[in-house]
Amino acid sequence: xxxxxxxxxxxxxxxLIALGSIAGAAIGLFTPLGPTRGFLIGLxxxxxxxxxxxxxxxxx
Length: 60
Fold this sequence. Notes:
The chain is an all-alpha fold.
């Protein structure tokens, strides 16, 4: 009987999207950017980091 390798659990990056969005809006409140631009910048940074984690995890 062959032994199968243990299942590999994928890494999750969704928390980075949420954290980036919230942090961007919070930082935007106190800068001239404004909360909307801060939110969008944080969102895009979170998506970029999540995409990088997904690509690295896919190679494993």
